Amino acid sequence: MAKANDTLNLIPIPEKITFKEGAFSFSEKTQIYLPKEFESDLKPYINEKVKADLGVSVQILTEKKKGAQIIFVIVKDGFTQDGAYTLDVSPKEIKVTSNSYAGLFYGFQTLRQLMPVNNGTAFEIPAVRIEDSPRFDWRGLMIDVSRHFQSKEFIMKQIDVIAAYKLNKFHWHLTDDQGWRVEIKKYALLTEKGAWRADRTGIAWWSRDAATADEPKTVGGFYTQDDIREVLEYARIRNVEVIPEIDVPGHSKALVASYPMLSCLDDQEFEVAVGGKAPDNALCPSKETTYEFLTDVVAEIAALFPTQYIHLGGDECNKSNWKKCPHCSKMMADEKLNDYEELQSYFMGRMNSIVNDHGKKMIGWDEILSGKGAKGATIMAWRRNRFTPELDAPRGGYPTIMTSYEDVYISQVQGPSILEPEGPRVVLPLSKVYNSEPMPSGLSMKEQELVLGTEMCLWAEFTPTESHAEYMLYPRTIAQSELAWSRPENKDWQRFQKNLPRHFLRLERNGVNYSKSMYSVYASYAIDELHGNVRVLMETETDGNEIRYTLNGKDPDLNSDLCTGMVTANIRSLLKAGLFNKDGKLLGKITEIRLR
């Protein structure tokens, strides 16, 4: 694998690479052959990507003729995993072989990465044989569009990017306290009222005052069912399964603002949350009208989304109103429920049945394990430390998706907090994402088989714009591709970080914003009272580059002092530090700290 590390720049790294002699010469005259069964889907996609990547048009054949040099072949045997493929490059031809559409699609993604980043009409592809298959079946990304609505075009753009890195699940967090984003035809108020909130732009998320009834509600948006069908078709061609989330019984302020009778607080009116905390945001689990309403919602969602899954949340439910609710007291007595956790599991159990009745499987966050659980559901295990759902769920027989908030919650900033946009104070750098391990230790082989895979989550409290959202997504989502696809023994942080600049060029070519926080300098210091000075420690997460700094207020350059260890400085000096490559190029932002 060493030679591949140095020359091919492939992400995610394939399972096996064998180098051969020579190279394949690509030109505008190169012809591509596709099986006719994939003509309607794969042919326009390949045409689009070759044109966008290389600036050339090539002839794509669906009838076997002599002369095709790039050949896509479907076989019945030889592959045991969905998405597995071989890519065989020789001087005479390139052959992509699989037993599925997914495998041909992924073979093409690897072939794209072997081609030039920028336009080229003639070039060579090294002769190589790649045998590849995914580690996990579930390779996901979640984007929250409730806190800040994003356009369907933005969603499709991200699906296009993640598909190129072999991620195959897009989890669409469509509802929460701050907005309901999916059209439900039977209940028009969900989008007429629930999709809009009062404007608090410019006010920190956790410092926002609640909306009043007479304020204009101008911030928001929603997707029509036709919008969603367009996204679904776009995703289907890219082998991405779209999983909708309707978050209940908590995180439902936009829902109860639209239909207050679903709350425990009879006859009370609510407003869609504007940010921060959202009290009174839970549905009543003890009114039959709640289940009748949600049955109708699930019916429309199930008919709209072809996925086998519907995510129903179940997380962070504030039960304070349940404890004051006569309906809940009666329900607990009638059903012999011991506590409010069992009341929530009663709710999730009924919802699980409703989802099953529509031919779907329910997914929930790991809080649905509490009480009596929700047998038959799939668990997204996000909590850690005093909670151990990553172990409890598979040990309890639940199919489990690993979504650790410590490793893959990319709403957390990714560089020194003084250089990053507003966000949680916890730093989740690229290297920590890459070096995390989705499969927890301590599971038996049988329990490990219940781990479906891993998913990265972008919660949207702090991402009001498309550009900001992309900044948080990339390159950490590219690291997610190796977590989910590649075998642990093939992962290598040194190789990955060296390969990324080429992938940054790919993102730039496609108009995708990304962060360079991996090139930031982390600086910390302590006052040395004995000697009347300051001791400064500077670090970065990448290797092979140089930290250069100044203490006189000037921006550092290639001629500035080189950091080789602990730095001693005068108190109240202005430290400026940057990371430079060997050619003297500043790679990231300059860190600036007053030492006092």
From TrEMBL:
Top EC category: hydrolase
Keywords associated with the record: Glycosidase, Hydrolase
GO CC annotation: membrane
Domain Beta-hexosaminidase bacterial type N-terminal: 8-132
One BP annotation, GO: glycosaminoglycan metabolic process
Alphabetized GO MF terms: beta-N-acetylhexosaminidase activity
Ranges for domain Glycoside hydrolase family 20 catalytic: 136-487
Domain GH29D-like beta-sandwich: residue ranges: 533-584
InterPro entries reported for this sequence: Beta_hexosaminidase_sua/sub, GH, GH29D-like_dom, Glyco_hydro_20_cat, Hex-like_dom2, HEX_bac_N
Active site: E316
Catalyzed reaction equations: Hydrolysis of terminal non-reducing N-acetyl-D-hexosamine residues in N-acetyl-beta-D-hexosaminides
Origin superkingdom: Bacteria
Enzyme Commission identifier(s): 3.2.1.52
Stretches of the chain forming a coiled coil according to its record: none
PANTHER family according to UniProt: BETA-HEXOSAMINIDASE, BETA-N-ACETYLHEXOSAMINIDASE
Membership in a protein family: Belongs to the glycosyl hydrolase 20 family.
Listed name of the protein: beta-N-acetylhexosaminidase
